[in-house]
Every structure is written in C-alpha cells, then in structure tokens.
C-alpha cells in the first residue's frame, strides 16, 4: 500500500500541481486552432481547442436563397470536420502540460478531466 504519511502528502501536492497545470493548459487551448472546409472550399470553419467556433467563411456563391439548405449542410460539415481534427491537438497539448507530474498509469486518460 502507501509508505508513510509523507508519501501521501507528496501525492496530494502532485495532485494540486496537476490541477494547476490542467487549468493553465485548458486556458491555453483557446490559442490552438484548426480550420476545415467543405464543398471544395465554399465553407471554411475554424475552431479552437476549447471546441468553440471562432471563424466561419462562406463563399458568396452560396448566398442565394435557393442554396440555403446546401449552405447549412456545408456549414455543419465544415464545423464537424474541424472539431474532429482538433481533438488530437487537444489531447497532445494536455499530455504535454501534465508530462512528468504523475506516473504513466495505463488506461488513465486525463484528457477526459477537461470535458
């Protein structure tokens, strides 16, 4: 089991460090962005690491009333693609931020702590 109370206190200190680093890392996620397009570039969506849409560009060719449904579909597709592609960047950023703080425990995914 655990060695001494000192070991336990050390572990508690590491958990506090981990929490502080995770908070800081999560704040930095707003600076990580990913852009994806749909409709051969007619729609471009940019999301950040906090999974927020930060930019949306729609080609003026799509701004016709008869293209409304297609435009909506392309916006959804571009946003979803950008969210899918930013996911690995988020994981990598959080892993780097907490590297060396805790032992590598197989099956532990600290990326889920930030959802």
Helices and strands in order:
Blueprint: H1 5-28, E1 33-38, E2 43-48, E3 53-58, H2 68-98
Antiparallel strand pairs: 1-2, 2-3
Subunit structure: Homodimer.
Family: Belongs to the YbaB/EbfC family.
Protein name: Nucleoid-associated protein EZE20_15690
Please characterize this protein's 3D structure.
This protein has helices spanning 5-28, 68-98; strands spanning 33-38, 43-48, 53-58. By secondary structure, it is α+β, with helices and mostly antiparallel strands. The chain has a single domain, classed as Ybab, Chain: A, CATH 3.30.1310.10. The chain has a 3-stranded antiparallel sheet. The protein is rod-shaped and about 70 Å long. The two termini are 31 Å apart.
């Amino acid at each position: 089991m655990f060695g001494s109370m000192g070991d336990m206190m050390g572990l508690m200190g590491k958990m506090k460090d981990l929490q502080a680093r995770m908070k800081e890392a999560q704040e930095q996620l707003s600076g990580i962005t990913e852009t994806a397009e749909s409709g051969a570039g007619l729609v471009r969506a940019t999301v950040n690491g906090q999974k927020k849409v930060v930019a949306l560009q729609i080609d003026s060719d799509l701004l016709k009333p008869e293209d409304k449904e297609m435009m909506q579909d392309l916006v959804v597709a571009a946003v979803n693609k950008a969210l899918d592609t930013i996911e690995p960047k988020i994981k990598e950023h959080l892993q780097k931020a907490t590297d060396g703080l805790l032992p590598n425990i197989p099956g532990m995914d600290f990326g889920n702590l930030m959802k």
